[in-house]
Amino acid sequence: MAHTELRPGGIESENHPWKIRLVEHPKRFESAQFRAAKKTAHEILREMEDADLPYGPRPVDPGPNGSEHWEMHHGGSLWVKGSGGWRMYRARVGIEWSMQFCADPEKVDRLRQEAAELVDAFPLTLPALSELGYGRAEDLLRTPIKDADGVEAWTDSLFNSCVPLSHGNHQGILPSVPGEHHYPWPVKGADFVRYDDFQLWVTLPDGTHGAVAPVDRRGSGDGHVRLAFVPEGSEAAATVAEAQDLGLMAVLPANSSVALQAFAQQVPPGRRTASGPLTHSAPPGRRSSG
After folding, report:
1. 3 state DSSP class of 3
2. CA dist 145 → 21, 119, 121 (Å)
3. Which end of the chain is more exposed for a tag (fewer CB within 10 A), N or C?
4. What are the sequence ranges of the domains in the chain?
5. 73 forms bridges with which residues in the sheet?
6. What does the CA dihedral 30, 102, 244, 89 come to, rounded to 10 degrees?
7. Rounded distance, CA 27 to CA 34, Å?
8. Is 290 exposed, middle or buried (0-12, 13-18, 19+ CB in 10 A)?
9. What is d(CA 155, CA 115) in angstroms, rounded to the nearest whole number?
10. SS3 category, 168
11. Does the bond joining 231 to the residue before it have cis omega, within 30 degrees of 0?
């Protein structure tokens, strides 16, 4: 890399172009651990009421053999059974399949210990998993992780690999559905708690897609929106980055096209600002199903 003299306005360049090769993945096989974990997760999901599912409704497109087409995300899936049935909590971190190859066994073992502590607080869990044919659960929770084999077993276990998501919520890309693999979880997570009539994901003036949040509580009449996420290629990216560096918010006015998109279902048709009272035709506030 060739550098000019370091002075204000100096230019840094490279003496060769960037090259990124697109190559095929090494053949990825489903381990016996992952197959067993997925089978158990599907059994659990069949037992659950629709309202108790962690991330939105059941996928509508049938998978093989007519089963629900869930995609299992390696996102830290801590399944437990309490008096009210099955629940899934998220681990402190999840280990994506490819990330196991840089995972320190000692750090992964801490995840195992934390999972074991949670499961122990729900004594119905291990017997229920055994009934579903997942008898390996207790060994996974009790066996210290000391090497790559242990990391692999944990990575593909029920306690890491089985966050059930639709294809869109798993791997989707805007403008269709934003998936967890492509959008930051602090923003994507809002998809599962937002009001149904608030549009989280919007089209920005330059044609890129981002996410916004209200600046005040529902019913305040304030139609300004905060830019919560923009892609690096967006014209707004530098402004959002500067705001974060300064501890400020990047806010768009209530009469902007972005604010009008976000509140489109909450304001009367034809109103040129998102500020003001909610329209009476807006649906009641419900949590989004994603």
Report:
1. strand
2. 35, 17, 21
3. N
4. 32-165, 167-262
5. 163
6. 50
7. 16
8. buried
9. 13
10. helix
11. no
> pLDDT per position in the chain (290 positions), as tens?
444 343 444 444 455 566 667 666 666 668 999 999 999 999 999 999 999 999 988 887 655 544 458 999 999 999 999 999 999 999 999 999 989 999 999 999 999 999 999 999 999 999 999 999 999 999 999 999 999 999 999 999 999 999 999 999 999 999 999 999 999 999 999 999 999 999 999 999 999 999 999 999 999 999 999 999 999 999 999 999 999 899 999 999 999 999 999 999 999 988 999 999 887 554 555 544 33
Does residue 57 come out as left (phi exceeding 0), alpha (psi in the -120 to 50 range) or beta? beta
CB neighbour list of residue 218: distance below 8 Å, 6 or more residues apart: 195, 278, 285
Q: Is the pTM of this model over 0.70?
A: yes
Pairwise CA distance, residues 226 & 116, whole Å: 39
CB atoms within 10 A of CB 197: 19
